[in-house]
Amino acid sequence: MKLHYLHQRPKITLKKETRREGIIDDDAEALLLQVAAQPLRDVLILVRDVGLRPEEVFRMRWEHVHWEKRVYFNPFGKTQKSRRWIPISERATEVLKTRLYNQSTAKPTRRGRPFAASKPCEWVFPSRTSAAPHLTTVAKQFRAARRLARLPESLTLYGARHAFATYAVEATGNVFAVADVMGHEDFKTTRIYQHCDSRAIRDAIDQRNRRVM
Fold first, then answer.
1. What φ, ψ does residue 74 adopt, rounded to 5°?
2. Residue 79 — very low, low, confident or very high, per pLDDT cuts 50/70/90?
3. Cα 156 from Cα 153, distance rounded (Å)
4. Is the predicted pLDDT of residue 16 greater than 70, yes or no?
5. pTM value?
6. Which of 18, 104, 127, 151 has the fewest CB atoms within 10 Å, counting from its CB?
């Protein structure tokens, strides 16, 4: 029996990490919200305001929403960091309250009673089909909204999460705190969203020029 050994360790070229560019900024969000149908509209706001991954939003449960402290506990994820506490913005709180109210007052349908009048479904985004107990995608709605808003096809729903990280790092300067909220295993991933303030550089050059003139 012949054994074949490698005489040289193979070299594997890793793909270089690039900065996040496809973000859903304020202008893009406004355009999308004008044309977005439900549940995409609520999903978009929650991803952008809370920083959850889209699949984490789909799996949200009412029992993990802590109304008084305005935080949400995400128990879903492949890593320990994915299990985390997340602050909820005022706008996201209103979205959740409206969804809870609508579920509690829903009327029976031909397919049965999706939500009991006195007890809402355990899922924030329950499925309207029997394939899964909760929502699994809003891809079709997002493509339709993106087309109506005349936004580039390169823009994805995940861009709302990129926007959350970009704004959170810019406003707080605390990369470690934002990394915890986003569930990043390595804070270096969060540092991708830490952009240099070009305005400060411009102002510094202007001040230098005024001194020498």
1. -95, 110
2. confident
3. 8
4. no
5. 0.76
6. 18
Look at the block and give the residue holding tokens 């029976």. Answer: 108
- Write the pLDDT tens digit of every residue in 139-171: 999 999 999 999 999 999 999 999 998 888 888
DSSP code, position 64: G
Task: Specify the long-range contacts of residues 17-22, CB closer than 8 Å, at least 24 apart.
Answer: 17/192, 19/192, 19/195, 20/162, 20/165, 20/166, 20/192, 20/193, 22/154, 22/155, 22/156, 22/158, 22/159, 22/162
Three-class DSSP category at 33: helix
Positive or negative torsion for Cα 170, 172, 174, 178: negative
Reported as type and span, the H/E element at residue 58 is helix 54-58
Say which residues have a Cβ less than 8 Å from residue 70's Cβ, sequence separation at least 6: 87, 88, 93
Residue bearing tokens 């995400």: 74
Rounded to whole angstroms, the Cα distance separating 36 from 138 reads 10
Span 40-72, pLDDT tens digits: 999 999 999 999 999 999 999 999 999 999 999
Structural domains of the chain ordered from first start? 26-197 (1.10.443.10)
48, two tokens = 């952008």
d(CA 152, CA 182): 26
Torsion over CA: 180, 181, 185, 191 (sign):
negative
